[in-house]
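re: that complex we talked abt at group meeting.

here r the seqs, copy pasted straight from the sheet so there may be weird spacing, ignore it
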Amino acid sequence: MASLHPERWVRVCPEGLYVMPGGFFIDPVRPVERAIITHGHSDHARPGHRRVLATPGTLAIMRQRLGDGAGEAQQALEYGETIRLGDVTVRLAPAGHVLGSAQVVVEHGGARIVVSGDYKRTYDRTCAPFEPVPCDVFVTEATFGLPVFRHPPDLSEVGKLLHSLEVFPERTHVVGVYALGKCQRVITLLRASGYDRPLYLHGALQPVCDLYRGFGVELGELRPATAAAKEELKGALVLGPPGAVADRWARRLSDPVVAMASGWMRVRQRARQRGVELPLVISDHADWDELTRTLDEVGAPEVWVTHGREEALVHHARSRGIRARALALVGFEEDEA
Amino acid sequence: MNRFAALIDSLVFTPSRNGKMRLLADYFAHTPAPDRGWALAALTGTLVFHEAKPAAIRQLVLSRVDPDLFAWSYDYVGDLAETAALIWPERHPQANSLPPSLSEVVDALHAAKRAEVMGLIEGWMDTLDASARFALLKLITGSLRIGVSARLAKTALAEWGRLNVDDIEECWHGLTPPYQALFAWLEGRAERPDEGLGAGFRPLMLAHPLDEEDMAGLDAAAYCAEWKWDGIRVQLVARGAERRIYSRTGDELSGAFPDLADHMSFDAVLDGELLVVRDGVVAPFNDLQQRLNRKQVTAKTLQEFPAFVRLYDMLFDRAEDLRSLGFLERRARLERWYEEVRPRRMDLSPMVPFAGWDELKALRAGAREAGIEGLMLKRCDSPYTAGRPKGPWFKWKRGALTLDTVLMYAQRGHGKRSSYYSDFTFGAWRGDELVPVGKAYFGFTDAELVELDRWVRNHTTKRFGPVREVAPGLVLEVAFDSVHRSGRHKSGLAMRFPRVHRIRWDKPAHEADRLETLERMVVG
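got the structure back, here u go
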């Protein structure tokens, strides 16, 4: 059956990826009339679009973070539901990145393109697991698109943190985590490892944790770090945004051990640059092995790479006989990794 | 290997000096011999394997990894050992042999024939995890670069053994890895290892740079001054038939300087500056460079670039250790000895008399001849103390030359700066074109580096791997000690010790200096 190749109906515009027969952009970087948002991180979910379609989780996150900027008209679409937009059908499939994160599955003219947004393949207690969707064109990120990036098992990384707490029981352990996703995942990993003491949070992390709880994610007892006395924080675990943990905010802590949970921690010098003493390689993005395995599983004859270390993944795909190109989309930050 | 790897990892991530010392002391206390001795050798740079060159490691990795993927990864990570350790394709499950201990690795490498070395490494890579692979590769390529100097390792060792670090320095050069005798002494199980130092190296006394603001607090009458000559600091050791020339770090240079060694027919340990001198005139540093880093010297080189030592100090007169005497007393002994022995190819660095700091300032400002780098201030009563004690000796370099240059290329740094564009090539105008005149990678603060990095990323016109060419728009005021003719550079000039003095965000590129200006600063 002759199908209409997606390169004829999906364009890279200054605003972002545009699906012409559907009349919508996916994760546009500028305000547009109609947007589908893959997930709630600020570089994907930007304010000021008129009509926004996303999962209920993503919409809730956008409302919390963007307020009125979350879109004049919001339309929730559950995973697996299909909707008709203009001349295309759209369905959202779980991406396993953060709560509510979705791949956008678009069909038109007998062809299917999957825009996966950000994703990972590791099991995560805080969100639905990635679902590989066979397609004609697979659009992927490549944040960790180099073979030096291999994330070790996340529970063993959290084990390093718990071990350090045993070795330095008098020191506060402060962990840099991104407010959306990483924070809640690290908390569930700690709980799964049997750590049931209260956790102390920087004020910026609390609202998203409350939101996750509303979606049924168990986080155990959380206390505000700001209200706690220095004495109480000795030997305690404190979570804060990456920018705060090695900065003035952390002065309130007792001889802190600075940890950071991020895929970048795999590279020593990256960790050193950020003044991290205890690097934890925990990422919400696919590592090299997950990226390449995903290409195999979706079986798409063509791959477009949106952002990250595109050249290496494109090179790899081509060596496997897959047509591949870099879209060089701008505006995506590599920091929330 | 795992314990050593854990030490390396924790040292890499521990920023504070005290924290590093604690980690080292803990390792020395809890690691059995001979592993801890080999680790000490690795940390102090005395463990060298010549068969495992970086190029061979690279080849090994490329036998398993796509070359393009490797190249991109190396560019990103910025460190060969780390790239290789991270990219190495693990076999699942990992080979079921046990990972080797540090001394097993060292023993096997020492026993191996050249052709067997890479096979051994390959086998170990398959049994170790990423962190231990990193430690292994750092160990065998001999450049740990983990922010621990040999001095720091020895200081930690001294603190753990409740000794003075200079006591360790003093006998260090008579010791060999894995340092069983040293550890026995540190643990109180044996006497201090017999020096047996003979013609060994004695650690040098070094000077602190003078902060001019500190001068007011210093008593001019308590200090002597002499010129700081622009060569390299050496220690001459002549004991019986043994004649050795050591660099300030204790590396042996004797082989490259037979013209000096020939004249060391005395029994003494001397401190001086190695120079090229023709007819009593000190040649520019460039000339000395023709003599350095050479294994073989030709008769022609010996004739064209005659080596010479200008003597500063005397550590031993025959068997007598003079180091506890004050500087002026040692100087008197040196002068007496020199009168008596009259060694060829050597003279005494003259003292510079001065009445007060103002007079000395004026002398320093007037010093522009090629061989002089600045002034040395030494307390008259200072004993010769190993290391760099603060107070007795200061170096006061002459004022730097400066030039307003235009940034042309930037390259990613290595190590801590691997994600920053931190190595800058700058040029001066020749007609309408910019000609590169030098390269600098320090002189700016961390905050300025962030700004420079951003500027480079926003003004890139071309990319060549890790190098970016930028539009001519940023003026860097570069400071340098001197400038010399050089056939190796397009501009025909080479700067000595160039560093970024100021970033002239305000200055338009076309107002930067011209090449002719730099030409006029050439000496010699």
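couple things i noticed - Chain A has a mean pLDDT of 93. Chain A has two domains: 6-148+285-326, 154-280.
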